[in-house]
Amino acid sequence: MSVFKDLWWYFRQEKKNYIAGVFFLLVVGLLELYPPYVVRLVVDEIKQQTLTSEKLLQWLGVLALTALLLYVLRFVWRVFIFGASYRLAQLLRRRLLNHWSRMSPQFFHRHRTGDLMAHATNDVQAVQATAGEGVLTLVDSIVFGGLVVAMMAISLSWKLTLIALLPMPILALAITYYGKWMHERFRTAQAAFSDINDKVQENISGVRVVKSFGREEREKASFMTLSEDVTRKNLAVAKVQSLFGPTISLIAGIAFFLAIVFGSRYVIRGEMTIGQLTQFTIYLGLLIWPMLAFGFLFNILQRGRASYARIRTLLAVKEDVQENKGAISTPATGDIQLNIHSFTYTEANVPVLRDVNVFVKKGETLGIVGRTGSGKSTLFKLLMREMDMVDGEIQIGGKSLTDYQLSALRFAFGYVPQDPFLFSTTIAKNIAFADPKASQEEIEAAARLACVHEDILAFEKGYETVVGERGVTLSGGQKQRISIARALLMDPEILILDDSLSAVDARTEEAILTELRREREGKTTLIAAHRFSGVEHAEQIIVLEDGQIQEKGTHKQLLANSGWYAWMYRQQQLESLIVKGGGGG
Ligand code: ATP
Ligand code: MG
């Protein structure tokens, strides 16, 4: 029952609906007690041979009217109670989504998508059932059940009631036992469902890798294993579930048997009329549903409690990045000062960045190069406050990142991630993602800057071309340039290109960089690149090695340094010569 206490806030919020619903449910219960009474009168009159067809017709009329009333009221209470429970599901889904959209990308690293989906569907459904069927079964089993028993004991025979209800404690025990059993099995079934959800999600988004490595059969096989596992575990739940019905029938059978055996003796002895015994056995029949409901109630509450606890745990996860009270709402702008003493990912134990101190004047371009895994993307994530660092500070315009509202930060940055992501919609909408109100001209201007305008026009539907799930129909270079256009459309104070030109050829790269230099006069640009031609023009270049700044300076200075940069640069020049030479010969 504790889950009802947990959900009390909601019952109070929907007070009117629940009160109305339960009220009509009780009226239904009381009305249901009436027909057996009518049957008793009719039976007794038959026995005494006093029944006239006129009276019979009258009684039948009353029965029909009761049935009609029951029909209407059963509909009414459902609207109130189930309606409220559906709204609870909606509310929980909205809360989960709101919460998740506040979470940093790190959160989604830690939680598997399939798992989150399972919570948003199954768990929400289980809580909804608690607030709907849970309330129904509670009222029906305890209140309606109690009402029937009271009627039997008070208006018919308390002795016979006691005798007939003798097997009930066994039922209560059995149901409690089944309930526990069921709960355990349900939990494992739910976990298996999460796993399969995850597998499906991973296989669909990784379909190209699966196919290109010819792993379909293996993946199918492992899916089959998971699917069999889910089926087995759900069957295990169903097996316990299907014990409820037969157990209740058995106990009810015994109760009927006792009622007839002892009841007929009372009738013979004249302690009861035949009509009363008939009424008694009909009531006994009415008790079957409350008993069943009692079993369901346990089951529903068990599931609801577990699910609600999981949902609450998820909702209680604190944001990795929190906004300070009184933070500034004006978009961040100005010089960037990075003072990172040390940064370590929560999951790791070695620092990824150490002693990174860089100053970028507003309007200048910073180039970042370094071996793969040297910490370039991490530096960007810290700058955009995707996560907080304990040891060090980053300032924009003389104010710490934490002094800004998160929206003020987000607004300042135009970010082109290392692995571009496109939504399954038109190219135009993908480019105008940050500003859906952007005009066609603005969209095209951004596309021209990113040197992708011609490519887009080459498609049959131009800007209205729908990009498939994650942009399967586009080349890597096209995707990169569309996501550059998306960032440029915002004309951000600070543009971050994280290895965003890796998939375009040298000439296109140069064209884009020229456009950028012209267009972004006076605005800050940060570029990470593996190919040095992407950073050559920058006012300042840093070379990261194992999270530390190894070299720093302009392209010229670094070449004069004859360090890793100069060596690497010569290598790359040589490579491009070979490529060009190969093409010419
Ligand atoms: P590349 O040139 O390949 O893009 P990079 O310089 O951008 O590399 P980062 O992505 O910043 O490198 O990664 C730096 C180090 O941090 C790597 O060793 C990586 O394994 C580690 N790392 C990155 N993200 C996480 C994370 N979320 N949790 C733990 N470690 C991480
Ligand atoms: Mg990177």
Automatic annotation (TrEMBL):
Name of the protein this chain belongs to: ATP-binding cassette, subfamily B
A single Pfam family it belongs to is ABC_tran
Location(s) in or outside the cell: Cell membrane
The terms under GO molecular function for this entry are:
ABC-type oligopeptide transporter activity; ATP binding; ATP hydrolysis activity
* Cross-referenced PROSITE patterns: ABC_TM1F (PS50929), ABC_TRANSPORTER_1 (PS00211), ABC_TRANSPORTER_2 (PS50893)
- Kindly give the membrane topology term recorded for this protein: Multi-pass membrane protein
The record places domain ABC transmembrane type-1 at: 19-303
Database matches in SUPFAM superfamilies? ABC transporter transmembrane region (SSF90123), P-loop containing nucleoside triphosphate hydrolases (SSF52540)
Q: What is its main location?
A: membrane
Please name the Gene3D superfamilies in this protein's record: ABC transporter type 1, transmembrane domain (1.20.1560.10), P-loop containing nucleotide triphosphate hydrolases (3.40.50.300)
